[in-house]
Amino acid sequence: MERVDEIKEELIAELEALRRRVAELERLEAERRRTEEKLRLIFDSIAEGITVTNLDGTIVELNEAMVGMQGYDNKQELIGRNILELIAEVDYLRAKENLKRALEAEYVKDLVGYIFLTKDGREFDVELSATVLRDATGEAIGFIFISEDVTERKRVEEQLLITDRLASIGELAAGITHELNNPLTSVIGFSQLLLGKDIPDDIREDIKVIYNEARRAAEVMQNLLIFARKHAPVKQLVNINSVIEKVLTVRAYEQRVENIQVITHLAPDLSETMADYFQLQQVFLNIVINAEHFMLEAHQRGTLTITTQWVGNTIRASFTDDGPGIAKENLGHLFDPFFTTREVGKGTGLGLSICHGIITEHGGRIYAESESGKGATFVVELPIPVEINSEGGSNE
Q1: Are 72 and 135 within one domain?
Q2: Burial 98-111 (b: 16+ CB within 10 A, else e)
Q3: Which of 133, 148, 241, 273 has the most CB atoms within 10 Å of its CB?
């Protein structure tokens, strides 16, 4: 009987020890899960994209930043794919070669820049670093990639570079303009005098060319000065319908002889806005002349539709042509300084940049909408002064 009691006590002790071991294992498992979750949260909260792959580049894990950077909805859409599939074709072979280099070098910092592709095919710039991943025995089993989207940084750097160039151009333009104004004025003045005299027709045509080209040169120099130097606009209450009508009056002869039809839908009760009349005239004139040029280039005629409307607290003017349209890759650069799709010698690439500067300084915005082959629409939106807007309404 005593032996039975001893066995019972031993069993109870062993069961108690087992219970304690099970409890400890449960505690360790819970701790492991908490640590794992903490690491997961840290992993997913890192701003840079992190991708873990095996040796051939197949993705086995990645963080939320990388998923978002690539434009996907969840990790499962990317796990199992090769990281090289995310890189644009232009960089594919270089990236593949650099994978081999990374394996040999253990760690490669910023393997130059790559162009990556989002889920919908949009390109963006990435700087990538790679580290070889090894197991407990030291054998290489994969890679860890750190990715940073530098698209915005590159855009800012390019903008700063343009700004620096423009500052230099401003100084240069000021000096050149003062030097050229006197001889250009003489050429323009004397050619006008000659055109007023009784001269043979063939000589008259030659002098007209001299006169027009001198005027063009003077206009280019003036545009450089306007673009490079910031002039505060003289603002007053302006009705943009009257500005547009003035521009159309100025262009009426050219539009008639070039077979350009203009259709206007100008809102009769359009609100006024605070603006510099002559600067707005310059903006609208530039848009109209551009539309005429591309319509004539496309089919030697054209139809330009101009619409004004009161939309909420803004005035909107739309200029729609039936020209060749604007290529998708050019839409984002239309207002960049010195960007032009015209032939060399037929445009400086400053016109729309000047327009953008003027409208921005007026607190508005200017943009273009187009599909290649389907014409283009340039839209100018200007704010309505609060005191006027509170009394009016909306046409839309």
Answers
A1: yes
A2: bbeebeeeeebeeb
A3: 273
Are 120 and 183 within one domain? Answer: no
Please give the single-letter amino acid code of residue 260. Answer: I
**How large is the average pLDDT for residues 231-243?**
81
Alpha helices in 258-319 (DSSP H): 277-299
Instruction: Count how many domains the chain has.
Output: 3
Whether 352 and 286 have beta carbons less than 8 Å apart is answered as yes
Residue 221 falls inside a structural domain: yes
Q: What percent of the chain has pLDDT over 90?
A: 18
Distance set, CA 259 to CA 84, 255, 320 (Å):
54, 6, 16
Residue 95: pLDDT band by 50, 70, 90 thresholds? Answer: confident
Asked if the structure places residue 9 within a domain, the reply is no
Q: Which domain holds residue 361?
A: 236-389
With a threshold of 0.85, does the pTM exceed it?
A: no
Residues 263 and 165 occupy one common structural domain: no
Residue 255 lies in a domain: yes
pLDDT per position as a tens digit, 196-208: 888 888 888 888 8
* Token pair of 139 as six digits: 């054998």
Between CA 75 and CA 79 the distance in angstroms is 6
Q: CA torsion, points 323, 329, 331, 333, in degrees to nearest 10?
A: -130
Structure tokens at 84: 């090289």
- Rounded to whole angstroms, the Cα distance separating 365 from 370 reads 17
Beta strands in the chain (DSSP E): 49-54, 59-62, 107-108, 113-117, 123-134, 140-149, 236-238, 260-266, 273-275, 302-311, 314-321, 365-370, 376-383
